[in-house]
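Postdoc handover notes: sequence design on the structure in folder B. Input tokens:
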């Protein structure tokens, strides 16, 4: 079995997390265009788009600090996967609700990714990076809780629109 050093593991984890963030950014930007009927949900996503852009910048800096760059192949694959998921949701009657559920779950995926990345960064001797990744995990958890608080109100709004015969989705 080939031996892998911590630097290789760390660079791979950075690229993976960056690809995850890019996928999330694309999905949020796509969703925002159809949330005019859900202003509170749109506001949470708009704020998180800016947070995500900052996190991608931090990941880029961490990659540069270890002499690496983002993997365009990995980003392309995750982008295609995200586009397929969004397309499937878009043809569903309850697109808004499915995107809300997926977004909630996705935030916790990011929490796990950043918590793991912080441990890897610490092991790689990058304590300054680890601190930023712990903060990113906390940011993602806060957004997950914001989204959790929207599940019932968005569902009620969706039902009000749908049951009155109005268009509930974009």
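Designed sequence:
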């Amino acid at each position: 079995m080939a031996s892998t050093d911590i630097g290789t593991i760390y660079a791979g984890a950075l690229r993976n997390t960056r690809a995850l963030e890019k996928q999330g950014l694309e999905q949020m930007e796509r969703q925002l265009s159809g949330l005019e009927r859900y202003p509170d949900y749109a506001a949470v996503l708009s704020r998180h788009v800016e947070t995500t852009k900052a996190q991608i910048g931090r990941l880029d800096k961490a990659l540069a600090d270890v002499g690496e760059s983002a993997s365009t192949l990995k980003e392309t694959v995750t982008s295609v996967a995200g586009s397929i998921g969004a397309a499937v949701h878009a043809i569903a009657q309850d697109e808004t609700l499915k995107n809300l559920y997926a977004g909630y779950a996705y935030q916790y995926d990011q929490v796990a990714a950043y918590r793991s990345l912080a441990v890897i960064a610490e092991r790689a001797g990058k304590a300054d990076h680890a601190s930023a990744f712990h903060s990113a995990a906390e940011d993602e958890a806060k957004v997950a809780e914001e989204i959790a608080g929207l599940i019932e109100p968005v569902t009620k709004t969706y039902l009000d629109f749908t049951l009155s015969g109005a268009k509930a989705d974009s």
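Context for whoever picks this up: The radius of gyration is 18 Å. Don't rerun without checking with the PI first.
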